[in-house]
Amino acid sequence: MDETLRHTRDGLTHEAVTGGPPDGPPVLLLHGFPQDATAWDRVAPVLQTAGMRTLAPHQRGYVAGARPRRVAAYRLERLVEDAVGLLDHVGVDQVHVVGHDWGGAVAWALAAWHPERVASLTVASTPHPRALAWAVRHADQARRSWYVAGFQVPLLPELVMARALRRGALARTGLPRDDAGRYAARLGTRAALRGPVGWYRAAARSGGRAVGRVAVPTTLVWGARDPFLGRAAAERTGRYVDADYRFVELDAGHWLPERRPGELAQEVLRRAGVATDDAGGPG
């Protein structure tokens, strides 16, 4: 049975959902925008059935107790520190890391900066940051990421996004309606969105630590119909991984944890070295 963990660090009260065998190989599940830890509700049971212990935090800005006001508090360095802090809190030295969307960016940085804590890496949708930066300059990623510039405006993005969430706009991008409604219930106000939008504002400011090459076994699972993250960056990502690397292309859109949980879970298990039977289920 899943339970909620809470721990306090640097004046913030962080929350995470954990489940599965306490002594099983741990897997850290990092959600994106504008999701929360429940994005993994269809993935985690598959991993738990295979014997893995799941750790799914509501990331910084997504819960009231961990919603600092300063934009600098949402720099990638702080987000990675949160992930490491959770591992320290539960006494886990090394973990299999899974990230989607913005959680993928945190996952890439965690693997690059703390490889000793990462047993394997599986990223859904999000190419390596250096591949994304290249695609912004040389391919169509700037067009796909137009909304990032809009998020730099003060106050207005929170108002517009809160209204869009409440009206079910995410369902029009392929997200199931029940998931869109659940995320809107958590983030459908200007105050609740201040933290998540802060991730975009912090990323646009200069001076952050670069995400370098990754030297842990890695899989990128990407949907060929993703409207936000394009093919050029996805196909280039392998250039930045100095370990065993697998690129899995699905006939899918962006919301892989919600829309393609079984296939995503199987790729996590494959990368983590957890045996599965011939039918594709845990063995």
Task: Supply the CATH superfamily name.
Answer: Alpha/Beta hydrolase fold, catalytic domain
Counting copies of identical and different chains, the oligomeric state is single chain
Order of neighbouring strands in the sheet with most strands: 1-2-4-3-5-6-7-8
Model regions low in confidence, pLDDT < 50 over at least 5 residues: 278-283
Specify the number of helices: 12
The secondary-structure element order is EEEHEHEHEHHHHHHEHEHH
CATH class: Alpha Beta
Report how far apart the termini are: 21 Å
Question: How many beta-strand segments?
Answer: 8
Report the C-alpha radius of gyration, rounded: 17 Å
CATH fold group = Rossmann fold
Count of individual domains:
1
Instruction: Sketch the major β-sheet.
Output: 8 strands, mixed
Descriptive keywords:
283 residues, globular, alpha/beta, Rossmann fold, 12 helices
Provide an overview of this structure.
- It contains twelve helices and eight strands.
- It is of the alpha/beta class.
- Helix 2 crosses helix 3 and helix 7 (156-166) crosses helix 9.
- It is globular.
- Residues 278-283 have low confidence and may be disordered.
- The chain has helices at 44-49, 76-90, 102-113, 129-138, 141-144, 146-150, 156-166, 177-187, 190-204, 231-236, 256-259, 261-272, and strands at 3-9, 12-19, 26-30, 53-58, 95-100, 118-124, 218-223, 245-250.
- It has an eight-stranded mixed beta sheet, with helices on both faces.
- The chain has a single domain (3-272), classed as Alpha/Beta hydrolase fold, catalytic domain (Rossmann fold).
- 39% of the residues lie in helices and 18% in strands.
